[in-house]
Amino acid sequence: MFEIVIPGLILAGFALISASGLFVASKKFYVYEDPRIDEVEELLPGANCGGCGFAGCRAYAENAVNNKTVDPPCPVADAEAMQAVARLLDLEVEVKEKQVATLLCKGTHENSRSVMEYYGIDDCWAAMLVANSLKACAFSCLGLGSCVRACSFDAMLLKDGIVVIDEEKCTGCGMCLQACPKNLLFMRPVSGQVIVTCSNTDRGADARKACKIACIGCMKCEKSCHQNAIHVNDFLASIDYEKCTNCGDCVAACPTNAIEMRGQEVYVTA
Amino acid sequence: MLQLRTFKRGGIYPPHEKLSADAKIIFGEIPGNLLIPVNQHIGRPLKITVKKGDAVKRGDLLAESTGFISSNVHSPVDGKVLKIFRFPLLGGLIREVIQIQPTEPGKSFKEVLESDPYFDIDIGSLTPEAIRKRIEEAGIVGMGGAGFPTHVKLSPPPEKKIDALIINGAECEPYITADHRVMVERSSEIIKGIKILQRLFENVPVYIGIEENKPDALKILDELVSKDGDILIVPLKAKYPQGGEKQLIKAVLNREVPSKGLPMDVGVVVQNVATVLAVYDAFYYNRPLTERVVTVSGNVVNQPGNILLPVGTPVSYVVKKFEIDVQKVRLLIAGGPMMGRTSHSFESPVTKTTSALLFFDNRVFAERRENPCLRCGSCLRVCPMGLDVALYTQMIKADKIAPEAKDHIQDCIECGSCAFVCPADRRLVQWMRLGKTIIRREN
Amino acid sequence: MNVKEKLLKSFFVENPVTGLLLGLCPTLATTTSAENGLGMGLATTFVLVSSNVVISLLRNVIPNRVRIPSFIVVIATFVTIVDMGMQATLYDLHKTLGLFIPLIVVNCIILGRAEAFASKNNLWDSFLDGLFMGLGFTFSLFILGSVREILGTGNWLGMALVPGDWSTILVFVLAPGAFLSLGFILVGMNKIARVIEGGK
Amino acid sequence: MEANGVLIMDSSPLGRTGESTRKIMFTVCLTLVPALAVSVWMFGWDAVRVLVLTAVFTVGVEALIAKFSNTKIDYLDGSALLTGILLAMNVPSNAPWWMLLIGAVVAVVIGKQVFGGLGQNIFNPALVARVFLLISFPMQMTSWPLPGAFDGTTGATPLGILKTEGIGAIKTIGVGDLAMGHIGGSLGEISALALLIGSLYLFYKKYITWEIPVAFIGTVFVFTGAFYLINPAQYASPVFHIFTGGLFLGALYMATDMVTSPLSFKGKLLFGFGCGFFTALIRLFGSYPEGVSFAILFMNAFVPLLDRYFPDKKFGMVKNG
Fold it and tell me: Hey, are the CB atoms on A120 and D6 less than 8 Å from each other?
């Protein structure tokens, strides 16, 4: 009996000493961390893509809690998650629609013929050092996939010399926009189904020569639009998605098929 | 024979292929159509001073400089401005060009040149400021390839003491003989041009560096300067890239330009012989820089030669003049094969910096795929700048450039020695240029 | 998520060894034979299940600040029980596994599951989690042990699989062999995991 | 004016010397011919059998990987063949075929392709395979057929004899025998002279440079020489150490492998020194009789560090004057 009591007492003594040590440590080395940081981080997607400009989701959460802001909103999280974050921080958040990357070019091999045989490195930035464009159109997509490599969500692929974007997978993080040396990618709200698939700012005749579906700046779309949502600047039409109602009048009016109506069916699968 | 000078580190010995070394400079006719690129220099973009429909005279300003580091562009012929639009230049970049329709197409260009009045100026009466101003007005840029405005190069800040002027007659690139022919045929003019430049720096000693594979140029210039104490002909070993500024200074004076530095940091100014000739023309004929000697060569050219062309002449004119079979051409290079740039349009115009037009068929250019780097170290061995090319390109490919490598990557002179010897056919120069782009984007 | 799906997931997708790369120290050290791997795996499973159950029961009692020491105490208790129990019943196996049985205390799977799962979930879920994770761990160790035993000694669970005059690849029972086999098993398991995840 | 088809666009320079990966690899293979000839002369058809089998196995394994891989692998670029030949030179001539097959798989798969293929591997593939075989099959890998003995007599290498029986047992072996290859050993390690002759062409072509071999062999010489001077009764002479084992094969063909050696001058010297130091250390004090392969593999791991911390001086890196 006695031999079990002594170890018991010794252990109890150890426990007491350790417990007081723990108590001292917990008071002395206490670092306050807002528990909401963890909660916010939980709500974020956790992809650490950097699309918001912070060094990852944790950094975003710290900023959100410490500065009490959800600006810029996480480009990847859906509206629901961002609202949850905002509720947590007692903030009002306006519901922003999901944005998707869109390629403003349809210069496939068929539409814009190749004017050279490029032998260099398969990288858009590297190719730009050798030639502005591999196709007849100076503004066309190079089709070497720098944006595809920049995409963390496997939402882009190369097809017929241009990039095709899977809008379901696209999270709108915007990393591809910076990866494109020709600034051919932009963000549009996913509900905007009408797209001007051209970036050529040359005069109509030159643009037409360069690509079959080039926007020639004929203004027909501008006239056809009842919402005043489409405008031609520098011989190139552009759509104001705030006003566009997806009516499709401009698509019908366009003589070169440079405007495209994108329905759900054009989603491609990799 | 005295010891030939050269730079020590790196360098390669590509075959010379100077096919047109003995071909006299010929003069063509005014082509039916000129496309004059607006920006032909490194520096601030120009402002176009003409508009569609304007009539222009030979020597009229087409676009004027907008700052110190900028250089005017003039019309080489009388004519009318047809159109201002964007067009692919030699080298594949699409830029703004001014299309001019000459009033007298087909007129011999030699006649045009001979009709320019000659002024017998007294060099001694010119002040350095007047010289710099005239050079600036004439739109003279470095004609060796880079196109840096010459007046800027000739205006070092006062704290940089210039004690040597080097005239670059090395012409180390294979095929190109334009400078070589200029040195042989216009040697006395070059000496006069040098005298003008010498005035700028209190009559500093002048060294003319010429590679040994141009014995006739060496001989002619040597005879001309034998009575001149302060001009020295420096025969150089034929080694690439001897014509690179930093390498030439190392070879001639054994001075090492510091990393990220300029020749003026070691008290040197370097000028290309063609530029010196342009300076001579600007003073004695009051000509702006509107024409230059271009070597036409390559394995599909039957009669390789050198031709004086007005700036803006489309390549198609040269093709016709030299009776080149375009069906055979697969590769068109503006400049030499080592540093020149490929082009895809036969309508692209000659610019102030086009030293050669080379036409090749597919015999010289079977498809070469990039293979994995073997780390064989050839690129390090031949790099005249002593860069660890193999390591840097791996970093650039992975988009993870080490901080200590950034300065070195920017030091690359893009001479192409590394890719020339690479057994794995890696596009090392393109990778290095991509690296520079990435670094510039980060800053 | 039903039980079957969860079981499949803990075997292939979230397997502690091949999916999460936890507990590599006993994984590499004790898998010189299939039997050793199995023994180690089952011992760990026992500790994992028991500690998960106890911690789940105590999860509302343990203060957040001292949860780690408390978990360790609970885990250490069960490890001591396993250690003593094995010494009494499976003396040979205990001798081969040696130090690695007491070292289960610091196996990060157990503390990891206690922290990440048992301290937040109810008793039944914690029990299942401990069981499945433990079985997944055992599964990997068994596979790794089998590969190394067969390639390195030509035996499997004590049975001779190859004729005696054949040479066996000795390196597989040595430390480098453990790394090599684990590497190749990881390749295979990741492939399977991708198929399972992709199939959903 | 339109050309026949579109023109080619590429980055400068547009010329090449005509060197290629294949050319380098096959040249290195060819320079091994003298050493291979000596081994065939010594070991007869067995040597040919090992050589052919290993070469076929390595190229075959690489071809299989090329077939099932997503990336393009040129299995005929000679690198797999070279690995095969070097591996063959590292095994005894009576090695069974399955051992060679295992070696080939290890060399190509574990030594090379798991790192990402040619140019990416950290360790010399042939040496990885050799060490794998040595650890896995210590019996087969350390009983060497004796040259000219066709009846299958086997014995230990001179280094093995030195390790197990002490200094007295090697007194009878002359330097000439060592240099010419009249000793037991693997195919490649027997004739130092033939290896040297073959490698001269590589030096001429600058495929290998003098730094690594000289630093490697020099360090072994100096290190073992020092111990020999201290106590000749216990340690073998440096000349014996240089000509035995795989030192020449290692120093000329293994350590100088382009992919797994440093690029800079200082890095190469340090690499060679490290290889020599560890070789001598293992030979003198280790439990294995031979240490060349372990030493090279060990130093291979330091190559990225050597590259990074001992770069060559750059042009223009002068004090601004």
Answer: no
Closest by alpha carbon to C130, among C140, C141, C119, C143?
C119
Structure token pair of residue B356: 């050669």
Best probe of the B interface among A112, A115, A128, A132, by most B CBs < 10 A, is A132
User: Cβ separation of D258 and B376 shorter than 8 Å?
Assistant: yes
Q: Which tokens sit at D48? A: 């040919």
The answer to whether D135 faces chain C, any CB pair under 8 Å, is: yes
**Looking at beta carbons, which residues of chain B come within 8 Å of D12?**
335, 337-342, 414, 416, 419, 429
In this complex, do B94 and A138 lie within 8 Å of one another by their Cβ atoms? yes
- From chain A, pick out residues whose CB is under 8 angstroms from the CB of B370: 121
Cβ proximity of A167 and A152 under 8 Å: no
Cβ-contact C186, C143 below 8 angstroms: no
The encoded tokens of residue B426 equal: 């890696």
pLDDT band with cut points at 50, 70 and 90 for residue C1: low
The reply to whether residue B92 touches residue A132, judged by beta carbons under 8 angstroms, is: yes
State the pTM of this model: 0.86
Determine contact, residues D14/B299, Cβ cutoff 8 Å.
no
**Locus of tokens 């300065």:** B407
Kindly determine whether residue A117 and residue D9, on different chains, have CB atoms separated by under 8 Å. Answer: yes
Please tell me the total number of residues recorded for chain B in this structure. 443
Per-residue pLDDT, averaged over D40-47, amounts to 83
3-class secondary-structure state, position A101 = strand
* Type of residue at B33: N
Rounded Cα gap, residues B177 and A73, in angstroms:
62
Dihedral angle of Cα C159, C161, C166, C171, to the nearest 10 degrees: -80
Query: If you ran DSSP here, which 8-state letter would residue A270 be given?
Result: -
CA distance B167 to B274: 10
B252/A177 Cα distance (integer angstroms):
49
Whether A26 has its CB under 8 Å from any CB of chain C: the answer is: yes
Q: Which H or E run contains B406?
A: helix B403-411
CA distance B297 to B18: 9
CA distance linking residue A156 with residue B27, whole number of Å: 54
Mean pLDDT for chain B? 90
Mean pLDDT of D274-284: 92
Q: Where are the domains of chain C?
A: 3-196
Q: Which of residues 52-91 of D touch B (CB under 8 A)?
A: 74, 77
Does the distance separating the beta carbons of B370 and A121 come in below 8 Å?
yes
> Which residues in chain A are contacts of C65 at CB distance < 8 A?
22, 26
Position D179 confidence tier, pLDDT thresholds 50, 70, 90: low
Tell me whether D261 touches chain B (CB under 8 Å).
yes
Residue (of B23, B19, B54) closest to B36 by Cα position: B54
Q: Is it the case that residue A19 has pLDDT exceeding 80?
A: yes
> Residue A53: pLDDT above 80?
no
**Inter-CA distances, B162 with A100, A136, B246, B264, B265, Å:** 58, 48, 15, 7, 9
Count Cα atoms within 13 angstroms, Cβ side, for B324.
32
Judge whether D305 is closer than 8 Å to chain B, CB to CB.
Answer: no
From chain C, the residues in CB contact with D139 under 8 A are 167
SS3 B16: coil
In terms of DSSP H, where are the helices of D246-302? 247-249, 265-285, 292-300
Kindly report the nearest CA distance between residue B184 and chain A, in angstroms.
Answer: 34
CB distance D122 to D300 below 8 Å? yes
Q: Is B126 helix (H, G, I), strand (E, B) or coil?
A: coil
- Give the pairing type, strands A185-189 and A162-165: unpaired
Q: What is the pLDDT of residue A268?
A: 42
| Residues in CB range of D148: below 8 A, 6 or more apart | D42
Burial of B325 (0-12, 13-18, 19+ CB in 10 A): middle
